[in-house]
Amino acid sequence: MSSSIPASDSPERRPAPQAPRHRALGRLARSRFALVGLAIVGLTALVGLVAPLFVTADPVAMNFGALLKGPSRDHLLGTDQFGRDVLARLVWGARLSVSIGAVAVALALVVGLPIGALSGYAGGAIDNVLMRCMDALLAFPALLLALGLVAIMGPGSTSTTLAIGIVYTPGVARLTRGVVLAERPQEYVQAARALGQRDRWVLARHIMPNCVSALLVQASVNFANAMVIEAGLSFLGIGTPPPTPSWGLMLNEARAFMTSARHVAIAPGVAISLAVLGWNLLGDGLRDALDPRLTE
Amino acid sequence: MSGGVGTYLGGRLLGAIPMLFLMSLVVFAIVYLIPGDPVDAMLGQDAERSAREALRHELGLDQPLWRQYVSWLARVAQGDLGRSIRAQQPVRDLIVEKLPATLLLTTSAAVIALLIAFPAGIVAAVKRNTLVDLLAMVGALLGVSIPSFWSGIMLIMIFALTLGWLPAIGYASLTTDPVAALRYLVLPALTLGSVMAGSVTRQVRAQLLQELGRDYVRTARSKGLGEPGVVVRHALRNSLIPAVTVLGVQFSVLLGGAVITEQIFAWPGVGQLAVNAIVNRDYPVLQGVILTVALLVTMVNLAVDALYVVLDPRLRLS
Q1: Which of A123-132, A260-269, B238-247 has the lowest mean pLDDT?
Q2: Given pLDDT bands bounded at 50, 70 and 90, which one contains residue A115?
């Protein structure tokens, strides 16, 4: 009656020599690309988290005595057109990029997962209505939809995060629905239902665990794309407003100095490309590790 | 047989109607949910009360929301997308003027992407686990990961500012000065196409590898067919079918990416129109661009569906 694991469950699981989860972790660890991806992702997150400890320079403090200076001991990556320290802006930009990406991806999961699960499990008219709504959102190019949504909500980090979350919700819902549809006719689901278990329980306890690997892969790719859209919106001047350090905004401002001070365009570009590469590598690695059918 | 294709496509077209309806709701909402009064935007905040009421009535803003939607939809169905607040010009005219530049950019980007992706993907799959494969895959991964707003800036720095081979930014019409037009086109098309090149290379490789492992390929090899014949005549043909379906998705990605590429290269397309519309709070223009692009994407997806049925006869039966 309590919430502890049923006694019949554990001895059945223990003798299995290696749980699929451990095998997947093993495969992930053996993939060099995935490890590189994981390292980059971890590094960006770490830099974003402990940014203030690393960098003493103020990312928004202007210094008109040192405009567009190249790298030096005082400013390791030089200064921008307002004399601001590029390294400090880069590091604080990591915090913004990672946090917007994380919240947007989580938002898409929290909204998309129940929609997809309900759609796939209930079927019929509910499925039809929900999926047509998702398809209608998918018909818009991601960046253009995000643009329109930010226009509704007004520029800023919060509206950017919300917009990106909404843009990736239909993808999560579609993927979840696909897995639920594939699992629903399986015998173990029939058995659970025949035992009189309630639909919500069957869905949560038996079907949903099968979505985890597909959703993990999708989440890491979404994370990469969310970072690109965030930077893209800032680049267009409708995402994060200045002077907040955002990689996209830094690149936008750097365009005016492409001939005179190239370092201001190189640093943020390398940062965003590396971060996106990291999530893509991790996504590839997870796909190979979690979907044994693809690895020969 | 064509009856089968016709029936299938008819069904798909009917299925698109509710989706188009929902899309129109989203686009309608984009303007009506925007905070601030459009009358303020058009007349300024200090306008006379009577003038404001008159404009409000003229725009139909005093009507209930559902009636506003119905009359908006009726106008859109007749090709009337409203008037630009800023340019004092019909939105349709603005879009018709800018759309060719965007389509030129996106189709050139797609052509470049396919010209890179197919050879690279095929070579990578055939020479699997060699240095060539590794290079192709690293290149594809970089293509997918480097955002266009950085690759564009880098291409300008290298090919325009340092080497001076190509103009940095700008646009020339293909009909008036084709040579200049092509010179202006190269860098933006490369920028926009690189992401698609990366992802299609990966797809072609994966798909071809899957096909090369199938029984019919073993049969073809065992009857003595040379490797180029096996790859080109058998495996590649079957890999093409899934590759075609991603074209619809890629077109959508390209149109979204064009917004940024046009901004980098001062390319006078609908993406730039949309960005300027947001900056100027010219919401009828934004609405018009988003609707036009979404309709284009839907039409291309239907066309891709048609192509899919032509390529894969099995679909006609089900």
Answers
A1: B238-247
A2: very high
Q: Which of A139, A148, A232 sits opposite B149 (nearest CB)?
A: A232
- Nearest-neighbour CA in chain B from A237: distance (Å): 8
The amino acid occupying position B305 is D
Q: Is B147 touching A (CB cutoff 8 A)?
A: yes
Q: What's the confidence (pLDDT) of residue B317? A: 56
**Rg value, chain A, Cα:** 23
The predicted complex's ipTM stands at 0.85
- Mind listing the pLDDT tens digit for each residue in B253-287? 899 999 999 999 999 999 999 999 888 878 889 88
Do B33 and A273 count as a contact with CB atoms less than 8 A apart? no
| Average pLDDT of span A24-49 | 82
The backbone torsions φ and ψ at residue B83, rounded to the nearest 5 degrees and listed phi first, read -115, 145
Q: Do A148 and B145 touch (CB under 8 A)?
A: no
Residues A216, A233 contacting (CB under 8 angstroms): no
Q: Do A142 and B255 touch (CB under 8 A)?
A: no
Angle at B193 between CA B209 and CA B273, to 5 degrees: 145
Separation of alpha carbons B277 and B8, rounded Å: 39
Nearest of B197, B198, B232 to residue B115 by alpha carbon: B197
Q: Looking at the complex, does the CB of residue B255 fall below 8 Å from at least one CB of chain A?
A: yes
Interface mutation target, options B23, B28, B150, B255, chain A, most CBs of A under 10 Å: B150
- pLDDT confidence of residue A19: 65
CA distance B9 to B53: 48
Pair A41, A278: CB distance under 8 Å: yes
- Nearest beta carbon to residue A235 from set B27, B34, B149: B149
Q: Which residues of A touch B34 (CB under 8 A)?
A: 151-152
Does the pTM exceed 0.95? no
* pLDDT per position as a tens digit, A148-163: 888 888 888 899 999 9
